[in-house]
Design goal:
With 501 residues, this protein is an alpha/beta fold. 35% of the residues lie in helices and 11% in strands. Helix 2 packs across helix 11 and helix 5 packs across helix 6.
Length: 501
Amino acid sequence: MSNLFDHKGAVGKGYSQPQPLLAAHMIALPESLTRKNPARWPRLSEPEMVRHYTWLSKRNFGIDTGFYPLGSCTMKHNPRINEVIAQLPGIADVHPHQPEHHIQGLLSIFHEMQEMLEICSGMDQVTLQPVAGAQGEFTAVRCIQEYFRSRGETQRTKVIVPDSAHGTNPASAAMAGFEIVEIPSRDDGRIDLDAIRAVVDDETAVMMITNPNTLGLFEPEIAQAAEIVHAAGGQMYYDGANFNAILGLTSPGLMGFDAVHYNLHKTFSQPHGGGGPGSGPIGVKNHLAEFLPGPIVKKRPIKAGEEAHAIEDLWFGWYQPERSIGKVQQWHGNAGAVVRSWAFYRRFGKELRTMSQHAVLNANYLRHAIFREAKKAGVDDMFCDGAPTTVAKHEFTLSLQPAKEKYGISAMDVAKGLLDKGYMAPTVYFPLVVPECMMIEPTETESKEVLDDFAKHFVEVLQIDAETLHAAPTTTPVRRVDEVYAARNLCLRHPFEEDEQ
């Protein structure tokens, strides 16, 4: 057990700050803004602080400590070279208020990242400002909303989403004030064109969909769906959560989409375990470009009498779209995430096609390996495919409903059992259309040996008796928690003793 607040140490501040270079830079704060009593910082030496955080890191699980097959989240390896580049002084030590000619290097990276995202998605313009996938969704929906308002089509108040959609899709649309129209999927888990035709009309603003969908299935009729929506005057929005399965093989632009968000923290390897930081840029077709939040980086000619600060005849500057919906994030987005993802893209380039192929290969290999091991152990009656298919894409779903009905073992029990085996549990109970769902995504960065071991351990968990599994996990620092209670009763600060307050 380690608690840095228990360290009392020598009397003092418990921290040190570098002195300002010039005393003139010191600003005296008004007395009303200063503390009456010193902050209750713990007083530790540097070794004590290092030991505390090293101990804390061992209590957490991350992609660097084990296999992390979290479905729909693409928890892949994060190359360390990306960190080195993001920490270069000309990148890490700049301020967003610095003049453009001071940050030409960073602006050139932003500009190139915009162009690379445009190319791989088939879009015409990209903004890097949103800092999460859900914020990218909301931003794209708002751009579409303003597009229709500019055309006087204010009657378009409905957003279509499949029943297998990410929950953020209807949430983002609802935040923008839209009415949500949910459509059922076919028995095979894919979109139903007749269901789309039945709800599309002149009130339709946009259809939001992921492809491959959340069942790990590619939507072969997506172009026809886009034609139906476009014929009614609506727009198509592509949720880029599963872009890792198609990058370099096809694109949202080819499928007929008008807007897309990218998860740089999934597809392009920006680290995001533990909740952040994310980055969710959006790309749009030309007719939506002037509604994007700014500023966007563009090249511009050097004006007469202006000194050139770039090697080329053109240099980089900020551009504000004329009909912009306004900023959705302070400053210019998550610059560190953009730089890391840019480094990843620059390093692999056209090989990103191979990345997608390997992601699909690994998912299908692991799916078959699990069924193979289960059959050998005689427990293949405890689960089934979440959707009937011969080939999944980058992820697949299993239904533990048979185990629940026969043995009282739930998907949550199996997930907790996997924690005791040293794995991060896959996503459970999503998508909602699969009963007792477990969604597994191995990503392209895992080896065959890792996948084989996981398949064996998965089947070993299925062979544990129900009573033991109900108590899992038993080897982790924290045992099974009451998740509802934890969500409703947040602990947001250290519980100081009353006599210290």
